[in-house]
């Protein structure tokens, strides 16, 4: 009898404690973070939307705001100025800014294959970088570096190439005034295919230029001050991406809730193009390899784009990926 | 519960339980066997496919290694690696490599889509059967990095530049001293690999074998998917267990969400998971069929048993029900009921015994009934005896009284007869002197017309008294010697009218007649009946000295001798009972009436309540009426009515008859009144 009384008292206490604890947990306000996107809302960021829509951020007690990028906004500046806790930017820009002494660090890579390709018309006979010589080439800012790197890698004289201004609508490329243009498999190439053009793709990665594209970055301070938040944010983000890859249709659906350009077909194609970039068949989603970073660093160094040499290991960290994936390689 | 139900349930239980147990055991056993067979099949399929896959890889490795070890290949590779393309040696080496080595190997050995030789120091593709690859770098690709040192099988990955899922096998090309010259790389034909996975035993249409990489992505196309390789992830129970580096089997939902039986095997060397699955629905189809057969048999047997049970139960309960019906019938007293005895079994014996019992019971009951009847009879007799004994004294007394009365009457009649004879004689003798006196008085009255008043008065008195005496004498004579009736047909109305004419009502008496028209004639002596009616009317007048009403009504009657009220029964007793149609003549007055005790003596001779008269009128009337085949009776109105007979007549059945009123006097005081009724026989 006495034992029962004791037991029930303990039980009651336990219940009281558990109910007492719950509100405390709930009272803890969610961490608010902003993510500075690299561009406007589109399938390029589908994994983030999936994580948001399915409540994975909320599960980690994080309240996430996505910020689109306009012409005046620079992702790096926003992150460095702590206007956004996280940002998405190309790996070469991270390296460059790091060399300028800015405390930016890559914590994971989203596009592990670079979607940038050099494009020529299928009947132009331009199939390899050597064919670029004597031709007119139009490049984006991101394209210039890789173009130079490829030419340099192959020992081709970049001065034998004529450059023309880059056009987003590829008008000059279509009418033959431009022989080669840079284009993204997740963007321009879709539009070209839609326009009915048959093209040759010359990938920088075939010529030894491997550079990560969309990379998730934060700052040294953020990592030092709140590593737990970084881990939670990254965990939710990678989960979102994983599910986006596994179910691209649902990912497009989530994307369409954000995208201003609510063209379901375009977003679907963009998503399809993104899948092999995010999941390559090697390693976990988000995983980074030292040799790629080193290769990129070398390219930038060769091109003289780095202010100060630095240890490449400073520009990215596997800390959080290891924590999330349990240290597997 | 009914016996039949119990029997059926018992039989069902006895048959279905063993059947169910056996069926279940068979089903369970079959299920296990089939399951084990399926699992064994799946496991062996996995092992076979793994072997085949390994053999395919080893074969590719071997052919690649063989190619790389060819002295000419080494020589040409070294040439390509060290000379400029413009040199003729380069061209010769290039052509020989393609034509004599790479292309034939590709065509003869198979397993590869293209073969390339990469420069050992930077991964530049020197030569390739796929022309568009030449000039590209693969310096960071694992197959190049690893292929520099050993024969290497790369994991399946997505090639952006090829836009497809690829797998490379590579091996180093070294010179005689063992220095690396180049890397020979083959782009494995994943179609062949998929072909291996897709080969099916043919036993099952849902058998599905596929490879999944360490990151949960499909590597080969599953049976129910298209373009899944490296695009779709799969996180089924089987895959998750497999990716934890386990081999095993499981029952789970596959990538389609369909329940499957699956076997998985972790290929450590390739870091791949091989899974073979088969739909549970298909795998269990034979088990389901077996179950259905067992159930079918069970249901069939149950039905047959139920039917037989019902029949069997009926053979038992039928006779029992008959017994029940019999018992109920006998309970209701139907001892003639017998049960049909069919079977010769115990139930038959029971029926027989029942019938015997009923028979015995019937016999016993019959004798008992007789006894009861006798007892009842005796009791009845006893009761009447008792009643008699109780009433005996009373009866004797009554009888004695009756006897005494009869005796008295007899004596009186005797006296009367004597008196009659005497009176007749005397009367006869007195008639002549009386006639003489009458004549004498008449003479005196005529001659003494001038005599004094006193003389005249006395003469009147003498005349009157002589008349009275003559009347008395003639009454006496009438009484003593009744003349035979001379009957004829005559209407009563004529008689009544005649009487009333002769006897006009005195002052104060109102006479009413009610004589129905179309009355049949009566067959009587008119003089005698006229005398009777005269008597009665005269009596009525005399009963109403203060005045009153006289009512004479004539109506048809059903018959003479009809029993009247209690008051009139005494008179009726002595009358001949001859219920023949007759006329009924009632003469009612409102006079002083007749007392109860006088009514009995009313028609006896010498009875009178009048100051004058000797009391022979009614006796004579009675004699005359009876002589004419009629009857006479008197009644006084019942005291409850309180009024005279006229009232009764006024409301009686004679209402509506035509009536005539005689007399002018006012209706006098109404007394108790009396009614004489004369019934006269009809003519014919």
Report on this model:
The complex is a heterodimer of chains A (329) and B (684). Chain A is an alpha/beta fold and 329 residues long. Chain A has 14 helices and 10 strands. The radius of gyration of chain A is 23 Å and the shape is globular. The relative contact order of chain A is 0.18. In chain B, strand 10 and strand 11 form a beta hairpin. Chain B has 16 helices and 19 strands. Chain B is α+β, with helices and mostly antiparallel strands and 684 residues long. The A-B interface holds A 113, 127-128, 130, 153-154, 185, 201, 203, 205-208, 210, 242, 245-246, 248, 275-277, 279-285, 291-292, 295 and B 122-123, 132, 135-137, 139-140, 142, 155-158, 160-161, 165, 213, 215, 217, 219, 230-233, 235.
Short structural summary:
The complex is a heterodimer of chains A (329) and B (684). By secondary structure, chain A is of the alpha/beta class. Chain A contains 14 helices and 10 strands.
Strand order of the largest sheet of chain B: 17-19-16-15-13-18
- Report the structural category of chain B: alpha+beta
| Portion of residues within helices of chain B | 40-55%
How much of the polypeptide of chain A forms β-strand, as a percent range?
15-25%
Oligomer state of the chains in this structure:
heterodimer
Largest beta-sheet details of chain A: 5 strands, mixed
Task: Give a topology summary.
The complex is a heterodimer of chains A (329) and B (684).
Chain A lengths: L1 H26 L3 E6 L9 H8 L2 H4 L2 E6 L7 H6 L5 E5 H9 L4 E6 L6 E6 L14 E3 L2 H14 L7 E3 L6 H4 L5 E5 L3 H8 L3 E4 L11 E6 H6 L1 H20 L1 H9 L7 H15 L11 H13 L16 H7 L4
Parallel strand pairs in A: 1-2, 1-3, 6-7, 6-8
Antiparallel strand pairs in A: 3-10, 4-10, 5-8, 5-9
Helix pairs in contact in A: 2-10, 2-11, 5-13, 10-11, 10-14, 11-12
Chain B lengths: L2 H67 L1 H12 L5 H22 L2 E8 L5 E4 L13 H6 L4 E2 L3 E3 L4 E3 L1 E7 L5 E9 L1 H9 L9 E6 L23 H7 L4 E6 L5 E9 L4 E8 H4 L1 H47 L14 H102 L5 H28 L7 E3 L1 H11 L6 E7 L6 E3 L1 H18 L4 E10 L8 H8 L8 E8 L6 H6 L15 H11 L3 E5 L9 H7 L7 E4 L11 E8 L3
Parallel strand pairs in B: 13-15
Antiparallel strand pairs in B: 1-2, 1-7, 3-6, 4-5, 6-7, 8-11, 9-10, 10-11, 12-14, 13-18, 15-16, 16-19, 17-19
